Prior knowledge:
This protein is of the alpha/beta class. The chain has 3 domains: 2-201, NAD(P)-binding Rossmann-like Domain (Rossmann fold); 211-297, Rossmann fold; 299-433, 3-Layer(aba) Sandwich (Rossmann fold). The protein has helices spanning 10-21, 33-40, 51-60, 97-109, 126-141, 161-166, 178-187, 189-192, 203-234, 238-246, 267-280, 286-298, 301-309, 337-347, 360-367, 401-407, 422-427, and strands at 2-6, 25-29, 64-67, 79-82, 114-118, 147-151, 171-174, 198-201, 318-322, 351-355, 372-373, 386-389, 412-415, 431-433. The strands form 3 sheets. A 6-stranded parallel beta sheet has the order 3-2-1-4-5-6, with helices on both faces. The longest helix is centred in the middle third of the chain and has 32 residues, at 203-234. The model has no long low-confidence stretch (mean pLDDT 95).
Amino acid sequence: MKIGIVGTGYVGLITGTCFAEMGIDVICVDTDIKKIENLNRGIIPIYEPGLEDMIKRNTAGGRLSFYTDLASQLDNLDIVFSAVGTPPDEDGNADMQYVKEVAHTVGKNMSKYILLVTKSTVPVGSAQIIKDIISEELAQRGVDIPFDVASNPEFLKEGAAIKDFMSPDRVVVGVDNNRARLLMEKLYKPFTLNNYRIIFMDIPSAEMTKYAANAMLATRISFMNDIANLCEKVGADVDMVRRGIGSDARIGSKFLYPGCGYGGSCFPKDIKALCKTGVQNGYHLNVLEAVDEVNETQKAIVFDKLNALLDNNLKGKIIAVWGLSFKPETDDMREAPSRIIINKLLEAGASVKAYDPVAMKEAKRIFGDRITFCNDMYSATIDADALALITEWKQFRIPDWTLVRQNMRGNVIVDGRNIYDYKDIIAEGFFYSGIGRCFNK
């Protein structure tokens, strides 16, 4: 079996590399010529733990290769995965132009049976749009070549994507006939040997499953952020509340950690797209609209705390920032809370000194010379009036507070992820502020 992956972004590159690791012959295709040239030279466009070594191992083994032209490769492929981007357009819909381009290319150039599998996150009903495009292209050519369309949504967590792919909780596959199902069963057979669950369903249900899963996780985050904000007002400790409700087996403890909001390439985009799908079908997803609103407000909470603790006068203040990526173990800054927080600090007249273990290159692209980039976490604290923890990288978890206190000229610590023991910080002479935690009474 030989498969093609169209799109070498995060999902496409992980998917192709992991299938190659399982012994499948994979080609990855992208129209970005520079990106493909770099991949053929071993230069990886994204950061993901373990990915670079895996790509090098499989390219050397001949199982993974990179091309710029899908049309010339179609005759050699049994399955084509569409893993192109679906960014939000101006009104919140998922932009389907790249997904449609793949369908047009397949329809114009296929000469034998192809199974086109959508890996990108697409609105419910997209499979039918893809089918119609391919059918129209075949009709214009005057040929009748069989094909199928399937849905195989991804559930990868940035920073743990390889583990998620190789040892999945479940693999969701949407098909509408037995031929497509048998091909997908063959493709995923190495995973079933390890007893991982392959869940087959109809295509619309598979498309909805992806959105519903992300929506549920985002809902838990926004719910806890709402509760945390109320805890501060009534004098409760959200960490105790989290433990109390998380011990209920019906609720569980995952995704109950309050903070300064979610970001990344999935949750913000998918919530907006699902809400838009609801409106287009005459139904308002009121809960998810509120989830999105709470999250947008929460992204400013670290700024609001800094502003209040520094007497509502940030002009001329130096703020140290630890963490820039939207979560640990990635350099992804799409929709990252750090972007909102830093921009607000700059607008208020503050200076920002920042450090992130991985995302510095991306941050420099975004902020340019508007902030100071430091070589390590402690350099960022020199002469700072306050320190804000935004991304909970492991190396930030047990800092030398004595050194930090010596470096700083101020004494304010805002913990945007509730990772610190407030007693240690207060003992060093700091004023500590977390999310939903009340200690400085």
